[in-house]
C-alpha cells in the first residue's frame, strides 16, 4: 500500500516528536523526577503513537475505498484494514 507524501511526512514528523518525548522520559528517570510526572509523559507518548497508527489506518481505508481492486491485489482488502483498525482501538 502506498501512502500519499503528505501522510508519510506527517507520520515522520509525529514519530520524531514521539522520539523526543521518549528521550525526555529517559532524562526524567535520570533526574529522579516524580513518578506521576513520568507517567504523564509516558501516557502522552503512548497516545501520540496511537495517533500515528490511526493516521496510517485512515490512509489505508481511503486507499481501499478509492481503489478496492488494487488494494485487494496488494493484500489489503477492506477487511484486513478493518482488522488493523480494531487492533488499535
CATH class category name: Mainly Alpha
Question: What is the CATH-assigned architecture?
Answer: Up-down Bundle
Rg, rounded, reads: 17 Å
How would you spell out the order of helices and strands? HHHH
Please name the fourth-level CATH homologous superfamily: Metal-sensitive repressor, helix protomer
Number of strands: 0
The proportion of strand residues reads under 5%
Domain module tally:
1
What would the principal axes of the Cα set say about the shape? elongated
Query: Approximately how much helix is present in the residues?
Result: over 70%
Give the end-to-end Cα distance, rounded to a whole number of Å: 21 Å
Largest sheet: none
Q: Do you know the CATH topology? A: Methane Monooxygenase Hydroxylase, Chain G, domain 1
Structural class: mainly alpha
Compute the average pLDDT: 94
Number of helical segments with 4 or more residues: 4
Q: Stretches where pLDDT falls below 50 for ≥5 residues?
A: none
